[in-house]
Amino acid sequence: MNSLDINQIKQYLPHRYPLLLVDRVLNWESGKTITAIKNVTVNEEFFNGHFPHKPVMPGVLMIEALAQTAALLSFLTEGRKPDENTVVYFVGIDNARFKRPVEPGDQLKMEVEITRRARGIWKYRAVATVDGQVAVEGDLMCTMRSAADASQSA
After folding, report:
1. Residue 139's domain is classified under what CATH number?
2. N or C, fewer C-beta in 10 Å, the chain?
3. Which UniProt keywords are given for this protein, alphabetically ordered (predicted)?
4. How many domains does the chain have?
5. In-domain check, residue 154
6. pLDDT tens figures, 58-117
7. In angstroms, rounded to a whole number, what is the distance separating the alpha carbons of residues 105 and 20?
8. Is residue 1 in a domain?
9. Known catalytic residue at 15
10. Which member of 50, 100, 109, 125 is catalytic?
């Protein structure tokens, strides 16, 4: 079983609080799949405004958490860590569906599978669940670029 703790995750993702949305990698298989978790706490900044009377994790942040999980899988598959010259862009999503709200105290379990990799574009099937119930699912696309090429279209 391959797993990563938060300190190891920070070696692969440039994100930091409050935008680092992966707390632990439970398991991953190079070139295939990854399973990670995000512990959702009431202390998250976004709950101050979304919504004060009924805190719900924004859907775009659930998608971002899945995209970060996908980026981890890509780096792990390539057997390398990013450097200051590497940028991973989230370039697309298809078939996104939100099935249940995610609230403080929930644990978002994210499962991402590589479905295709061609011409620098990685495609994934991504599903996040809470207590076995699908919260969000979709097909993601990401690309890795050098920082020098970052201003060019993906």
Report:
1. 3.10.129.10
2. N
3. Cytoplasm, Lipid A biosynthesis, Lipid biosynthesis, Lipid metabolism, Lyase
4. 1
5. no
6. 999 999 999 999 999 999 999 999 888 888 899 999 999 999 999 999 999 999 999 999
7. 17
8. no
9. no
10. 50
